[in-house]
Amino acid sequence: MSASVLVATLGAPRIGPRRELKAALESYWSGKTGSDALLEVAAGLRGANWARQHAAGITHIPSNDFSLYDQVLDTTVTVGAIPAGYGWKDGAVSHETYFALARGTQGEQTCCTHKSANDHAHTNGAAGLSALEMTKWFDTNYHYLVPEFVRGQAFELASTKVIDEFREAKALGYHTRPVLVGPVTFLKLGKSRDEHFDPLLLLPGLLPVYTEILRRLAAHGADWVQIDEPVLALDIDDATRAALRAAYEMFARAVPGLKIQLTSYFGPLGDNRATALALPVAGLHLDLTRASEQLDGVLKEAPAGLVLSLGVIDGRNVWRANLPAILDRIEPVMAKRGTDHLIVSSSCSLLHVPFDLALETGLDEELKGWLAFAAQKLDELSILGRALSSGRGAVKEELAASQAAVDARKASPRIHNAAVAARLAAVKPEDARRAHAFSERRKAQNEALRLPVFPTTTIGSFPQTGEVRKARAAHTRGELDNAGYDAFLRRETANAIRWQEEIGIDVLVHGEFERNDMVQYFGERLDGYAFTRTGWVQSYGSRCVRPPVIYGDVSRPEAMSVAWTTYAQSLTDKPVKGMLTGPITMLQWSFVRDDLSRADVCRQIALALRDEVSDLERAGISVIQIDEPAIREGLPLRKADWAHYLDWAVESFRLSSSGVRDATQIHTHMCYSEFNDIIDAIGAMDADVISIETSRSKMELLDAFITYRYPNEIGPGVYDIHAPRVPSVAEMEALLEKAEQRLAADQIWVNPDCGLKTRQWEEVRPALVNMVAAARALRARVEG
């Protein structure tokens, strides 16, 4: 075989092998270093990514996949779609404006007041600017910043980042394929404060900016450009399909010599296949790890000259690929279409997987042998490319090793637990139902808890200060013994309880100082889970998480949280919440085994948590919160698949929470989710109290509760914990007054949007004092 098959990735991890980007960002934000130092680190990470992919034999190396915070925010800045109030009018966008959009600001700002949807009031007078709303990127745990559009929105080329980074790579000797978030996806991901205005109507004004970018890239020597339109994996209407046709027909006319790869991922094209195949593009990418079944239909209908990019290496999970099986699937495709009409690729950006398994020291060799991180996925792509170009014999040993790893995992006795399977099989429908309806439970809980109207609480965690992290690290290294670490944690917990009592919080939390991460803490105490030391992935900005690996059947050997919760409760007469991470979130925020259905894995986790809930109740804990921030992000992209997912997700939550008495109050928490489409399912979860993110959306998320009369109690967040600013009492009161327009006063709890782990005490203390003051002001008004 003389021709070589093209090999591509759709994007690389940005954070660096040792989270260098996180350190550089936080140093810049704290004022310790300037923008030059930040940009130097960023350039180094980009160059290393290009070099790594080039060395692995990747022929289509992406550029502009790097971001200082988020690729959708970068697009917003590139096209000048910056809301009024941020101090930008035209010209280059400063780092100050960029990070104000991402994180908000604290203190005096010179900007306009809240007068109209055009202003949207990212301003709060002396309180500073609020950040753009944040939500999940499709069904992943990556967060993007939501673009905001207005009628008559003007677009202009306000940043040349995509062009600059292509030139930067070229200067280093790498010919890259620039990546753009597609114009239709960009508009569909955005929102308008005017609910009657469709941002898609702005497409005619946006396309000239995209066209200018493409022309400049072509002028600098780009031959391929990757334009991501994952909106093609969604249910879309005829207007969206027409918008896609208009966009790509314009690009084909304006830059006829430039090859565009239209890229979709996270699901099948489905009924959008005909639209995608009819667009005048040079290449089309298919995610074959999420939707392998779509290949046959595409092969039947694809134009002869269309280059197909086959996403066969999973960009969202960490299991080694079965390379011989993949070759069995795609060798016939190559035989039919030829090497010059085929690209072998990752399914999506490798942003969603850890950096390099070679750095990992926290896993035993057997489990490590089953895994592949981003660097290893580059090797897998290279092996496939060489096998297709030169025959399997050229990579005989590599293919044999791949098959052996797959076979060893399948045969390992660590995977299955007969007792877990038997317990799951014995579950009855009544196990997932509370004994009585909420109206009866509420009476018992009111009698037991004696809480005021507008009760205050927090979501669970308090700041993980440098002192806390230092003590944990010292304990991990063996420099601080168990007794010393236990004494430290007891002091931190006691101080948190005492301070909450002093400021007047009604339902307390113990602060979670003993916990590293809301999933990791519990996963480390469950059989069937494994944890890495270096398996970091980006969640948003500088926020990185280490998803655990669910490799086998899940069970709970012993109690996980009872000791610290009961210790905290012993310090106060006020109720202290038991804090657990729910089964859907434990599943969704993990790398999940692929040899068992996600529904059954989730039910296994639910049964383990059910035991923990029962132990907390027996220990005298009367309020138990089971957090489910990930329930919305787990929703399938196609509505036809929603009912099945919601059935087992709701059942799993109820299975974990339903084995308690009426007087035990079950809370749950969800953040950064659009609830309107699943409000019935949220009601079906039957939590006594749900707390949700609403501050960035200015209580907009509560619109779901206007037509759906939610029967239970709700804590709409009044304090955006993802930004460093401290909201005023008046600001929180205004949000609560908006909540009263949608909910009854006796339904409303007062709480932050999310846990406070990532914040500093200097921000948290005044914010929570203000929160309590706001609740008391409304309480005084209601009680007369």
Describe this structure in words.
The chain is α/β, with parallel strands linked by helices and 784 residues long. The chain folds into two domains: 6-411, TIM Barrel, CATH 3.20.20; 441-466 and 500-783, TIM Barrel, CATH 3.20.20.210. 41% of the residues lie in helices and 12% in strands. The strands form six sheets. The protein has an eight-stranded parallel beta sheet. Strands 17-19-20-21-22 form a five-stranded parallel beta sheet. α24 (679-685) links the parallel β20 and β21 (689-692). α1 packs antiparallel against α2 and α11 (323-337) crosses α13 (374-390). The protein is globular. Residues 108-121 have low confidence and may be disordered.
Features:
single chain, 784 residues, alpha/beta, 2 domains, 5-stranded parallel sheet, 27 helices, 12% strand, globular
Q: Can you describe this structure in just a few lines?
A:
It contains 27 helices and 22 strands. By secondary structure, the protein is α/β, with parallel strands linked by helices. It folds into two domains: 406 residues, Alpha-Beta Barrel (TIM Barrel), CATH 3.20.20.210; 310 residues, TIM Barrel, CATH 3.20.20.210.
CATH architecture of the largest domain: Alpha-Beta Barrel
Number of strand elements: 22
How would you classify the helix and strand content by structural class?
Answer: alpha/beta
CATH top level of the largest domain is Alpha Beta
Return residue spans where pLDDT drops below 50 for at least 5 consecutive residues.
Answer: 108-121
Tally of separate helices: 27
From the N-terminal CA to the C-terminal CA, the straight-line distance is: 85 Å
Q: How much is the radius of gyration in Å?
A: 26 Å
Shape descriptor reads globular
Sheet with the most strands: spatial strand order: 1-12-11-10-9-8-6-2
Domain module count: 2
CATH topology title of the largest domain: TIM Barrel
Mean pLDDT: 92
Helix content: 40-55%
Strand content: 5-15%
Largest sheet: 8 strands, parallel
